[in-house]
Design brief:
36 strands; alpha+beta; globular; Outer Surface Protein A, domain 3; twelve-stranded mixed beta sheet; 32 helices; Alpha-Beta Plaits
Amino acid sequence: MKVNFINGLILRSAALSYRQKLGKNSLLTLWNNRLIKESIYIASKSLYNELDILFAGEQSHAKEAQLLSSFYKYMARMANRATPFGLFAGCSSVYWGEINKVKLSAKFRKYTVPDAVVSFSLAKQIESANQLLAGYKLNNTLYKVGGDLRFITYQIIDDQRIYQVSALESNNVLDEIINVVGDGIWNKQQLLEKFPDFEQDDFIAFIDDLIEGQLLKPAFEPAIGYDFPVFLQKTDDTGLNNTVDALINLISEVNSYHPDNPNWFSFYTLIEQLTNQITGRELKDQIHITRFNELNEQELDKSLQWKIGKGIALLNNLNPPVPNKRIEQFKARFRKRYEEQSVPLLEAFDTDTGIEYGQWYEHETLFTEGLYAGSEGTPSLIDYTEIDFKMLDLLNRAKIEKQYKVIIPNNFVKERSTDNLPFSMCALFQVFDNDLLFLERVTGPGALSMIARFAMGDAEIHKAGLDIATKEADNSPDAMFAEIIHMPEERILNVMMHPQFWPHELAYIDDAKGKSVLRLDDIYIKLEQNVFKLFSKKHQKEVIPRLSSAYNYNRSQHPIYTFLCDIQHQRGNGSLSFNWGALANDYVFFPRVETGFGLILHRATWKFTPAILDELCKAEKFTDKFCDLFGSFSKEWLIPDKFYIVKGDNELLIDTGNEISMQVLAKEITRQAPVLIFSECIHLEHEAVVKDAEGNPYMHQFVAPFHFDRPLTPLYFQYVENTLQRNFFPGSEWLFIKLYLSSNIANEVLLKLDELLNYSAEIKIKQWFFIRYHDPDNHIRVRVNLLDEVDFQEVYLAIREVLSPFLLSGQVHVVQLDTYVRELERYGQQIEQAEGLFCIETMFCCNVFRMLESNRYDTEDWLLIFWLIKDYLNLMSTDLADQLQFVERQQAYFFTEFDDKAVKIQIDQLYRKYHSSLNNLLLAYDDLLQQKRKRVELLLQKYNINWNAKFLSSIIHMAVNRYFNTQQRLHECILYGLLLKFLKSEKARKGKP
């Protein structure tokens, strides 16, 4: 595994040094700093006003403690949290170099934008003012089902978007308007001129209905990737133009005024007045400010990269891939409905004709509204892994020996491939003296999620983002990487705004304004090799969606958007961090975890329940008693003098030597949360490398984008308008029956069917074949090609008679007629050739089952399948090198699914034991193999077959499926391993003189 870091890093750092004192007198001094006042004002105007009164000596003592506690929390954050937030922390660019030299300047700049609510309000006012000239576009979720036009709309209720699928009955006028508007922007005046035959008022009223119903949507609204005011439509309304200009000027003044400017307060007052006027209400936030710190020195030692790389590998080894539950459930449903078809994305997710995704389709009724009554069965037992048991040993040893930290040995876990990780990610870490690193986590999928938000206001960060996006796009040059454009809520734009990184955009409900916008009705979805892929029918290319934001899209209310984001995670872990796995809730104290090469992976952490904190909770109002009790408590649990209270992403510094801080702690304990989490502050124990000009150290995080070495990914997709019939319903020339039964009886049933369909004088058919399935239950799919549709009932009744004994005995549970849907996406124009081969293989398998009789697959005769596959390789190419290349590629694919080490051992043992028997089998069953070969020759006289890798692998896959009654994929993997050894041996023999 090689980790390749791009040259640019992002430094996130607190605005104050963590050496800043935070006692009562220190807080008073801090309040006299204008930057502190401005920071508090931006975060909370109400707190600013009350603190201003307090420190002026006008506030009653009754509220003093509460206000000082609030002020302390903000100042503790400003000195001990590196996550950018207003003016409390900022970011800057750093580069890999030869030495650690990172020096903060006292200077910084601000990047200010209006709140999304302000931007949307302005856009709506301009739309209203422009009247007939306001621009509109078609709803980008529009698709057709039967005679209905369907599209996704939303209502705003309590500032939240509530989504639904809306429908209009298609008619000539609607179809013509849709055809005219297309991908363009049209206003009402242009549409009137395009449709002159309609009475003007009626036509305008009709267009207004389409706008209100959201079939037509405003084309000039705030959009991801476009800063204020670029997205606004031009208008002749003087008042609105003056408002926009005034807002632009005020934001410019906020960005440029000096921190010591005594008039700073007036800028914010004017902005509040203006934004309240725009929106018609008072807003909590009128603008959003990002702080960008200036650096005097900006170099980080590149020799640290090897240590980070080792840490990433170790975290990957400690974190087994965790499948996405929504994706896995959807795979099962999709496979059952569509198998390997390519399906229009919008059709697949339609609420009436498509497939459920996640929990969105479980509609409440009168009887279930507000009821969450899941079945209460026996709690499932946790399966402890090998890693869990090793972790358990670490925790028990730490508990017995009262160890504050543990060191993970080099051989703690087995190496794991990084192929399950995204192509690019970001490492978040802190650096201290003596090159000690704290690797907090590795984020993904994709490095952009951590840096994109800050790229809008900084050219160097933007360049770093473009560099990593280019690396990924270059690794899959045939694919179309597309940014997912959607705002689940209007205000989400505040955190999702970023510049464009990818060449294309995939717009969903909200507008995309890039040069290459992909339409949703052009996107097809397909399940290929157990991975969902998207394709553009228009461009004939694979589409890879990307969400370049750290926004938690799981909060979204709509399945298509969630799915587009989910498929970024479908290959494995999207992020890495140290965790205690199944033990995370079983202990109170979790020690610090370090490596032997100077890397911290996990902070010492405590998880206290209310029962443990009960005595402290009772002493909350008695300050001295509380402090004494907590002193004893901290000694018992090894809690340091300074630590964090952790609540999700929020961390609050507690200093046991600070009276105000202890009051804050007491209040937190009395809240009696189910679990109160403490965590150590590593930066207070070690000297940080990030310092200011006076040498004061700062809490910080370095964000280092990197990517893995991966082979170029060749992608292919060709949407072919098949002229061949896809669906054959019951009563047509194909009879399709599903037989639900035990795998133990399957071969016996197949032999009875073979006797009827291949050897009976009474029943005449063209051909038949079977496939084994285990989705959702074990069953056989029997497909019979009739001579004529009129034979359907006769053949079905004959089959039913053959199956009757098995049904009466219960060995066959269910017989189900179904529609035969050809896998045209897998076999394309060669589907008839594939069906012919399936029929030949069915005859071959039934002859083998009849000859070997046993259903146990426990004799070497069953290795006959080896020669069936070898025959297919010979049909593809007689060149040994071509066969080797194909088999190596197939085996490598299967090793991503199975434990390659265990399977390799099995293959080695099988080959050593049976390789000498392979030629004997070839001779013993020569007649049977020759019969099959002659049938294939006859088929080849009728059809040309292109034995490309995709077609060949599918044919072999289905042959193995028929031959074995269980674990077909594992058998296929092992057979490719045996073939590889055999072919390599052949090559070695031919290479000898």
